Amino acid sequence: MKRAVLLRFVVILLLALAVSGSFSYYFIGRNMLEHDKISMLNTIRAVDYALDYHADLQEQVERLQSSAMDENSRITVIASDGTVAADSEIDRPDVMENHLEREEVREAFADGTGSDTRSSESLGESMLYVAARSACGDYVVRMAIPYTNLIDYMITIFPVLLLGTGIAFAVSVVIAIRFSDTITTPLSEICAEMGKMKGTQQDFSFKKYKYRELNVISETTMKMAAEIRAHMERLEREKGIRQEFFSNASHELKTPITSVRGYAELLDQGFIRDEATKKDFYARILKETDNMTNLINDILMISRLEAKEAEVTFSDVRIGPLLAEVFESMEPIAADAQVMLHKECSPVSIEASARQLRELVMNLVSNGIKYNHPGGNVWVEAWPESGRLFIQVKDDGCGISRADQERIFERFYRVDKGRSKKIGGTGLGLSIVKHIVEYYSGSIRLESEPGKGSCFTVELPFQKRIPKE
Ligand code: ADP
User: Is the pTM of this model over 0.85?
Assistant: First the structure.
């Protein structure tokens, strides 16, 4: 990358130098031409001043040229009728062609000064002519030097400009290398650091760089890596929980299936002749299948809640009728267990899924009945308070020890496994309750004392706030 950046930079530099060099050559060349014209005019004025127009002009011009000028300079004196009165390069000026039509001569007679560049007819060389009218006005003094075009000047200044351009190029290349280093080195370091990434186990360490954009790259990379790591860790954790859940669920299902199979085999083999025992076996098979149905329903409920089921139907759920409905379906079980149900509810409603709320209250009430004693009570109360709906389910049952209070919301956790199974518990009820409460960004609180009873208090915000994840 460094080479590519540098190469482009050098190409741009060369182009810039070529363009600026060409302009410099052209303008310096033009300036030098103007400068030459001015100094030639000064020489002409000096010659004009030195000449005695009444004496032999040819002899004076030759003498002036040989003593005061370089050999390439030519001086010509032209009379007002165009005849050449004297010429430093020609011995017999009187045979020379009339010069009145020469551009510089015409301009000089007309405007005082004139100049032209062309090939000399008499010398056969390309020349620069500068002419000025003499102080006495009857003559034009003309000076000529060899000149092809601006390139003459450019050739003169070429070595100097080349040296300047070369120095500028060298300095610019050094600066360009340093400049490209300040960009490519940090990028290479960032790439090298990112190349170290293996799986999710990477702690990047980037330096602080001069350019903000480079720091943004490194900071964003670190942020993204941290997010990916957190995400992967969460997925790992969820995977573990799911695996544990499936192995627990299979284990839970295995026991009733084995029992059902055992009873069915015994009945099938015809060893049981006693009708009462047969009936008992049928009843046990039905009980076990009921347990399996409960378990499967709870597993399905949990997986739906975990998947944040999309098609949850929200409606304005009136809590009074909901409690009445739950009590009605719980009544037979409560009567069986000789537990009294009581409710007290303010006229309150909440925007929620009726099915989820029913499940929540049903699980808490059924636990209050299940983990109670004959003659026990379950009280349910619901009321609104500071923007939240409170639902409290209280019982005077067996209560829960402090150590178990912390674990009863875990899946498949039961305080007394045998008792729970016997009364159709799955160990998932409170886990479902907790899921539903979290679905509505609410909270659940438990107060319990072994031997005295338990009190579960659920708080749900009235404003529907479904967690995103
Ligand atoms: P289960 O299906 O076994 O009832 P839960 O998740 O509903 O599963 O409850 C987990 C355990 O918490 C129960 O097995 C029970 O031991 C205890 N528990 C729940 N509610 C009560 C309660 N109201 N009184 C006493 N113990 C309770």
Answer: no
CA distance 308 to 318: 23
* 292, 367, 371, 396: residue to mutate for ligand 1 pocket, most atoms within 8 A of CB: 367
pLDDT tens track for 137-160: 789 999 998 876 666 666 777 788
CA of 435 to the centre of ligand 1 (A): 15
- pLDDT, tens digit (0-9, with 9 covering 90-100), for 62-106: 888 888 788 888 999 999 898 998 998 888 888 888 888 899 999
Residue 43, ligand 1, Cβ within 6 A? no
**CATH number at 311-461:** 3.30.565.10
| Ligand 1 pocket residue status of 431, Cβ below 6 Å | yes
Q: Where are the beta strands (DSSP E) in 190-230?
A: none
Contact 21, 200 (CB under 8 A): no
Looking at domain 2-153, its CATH architecture is 2-Layer Sandwich (3.30)
Domain residue limits, the chain: 2-153, 206-307, 311-461
Contact call for residues 356 and 308 (beta carbons, < 8 A): no
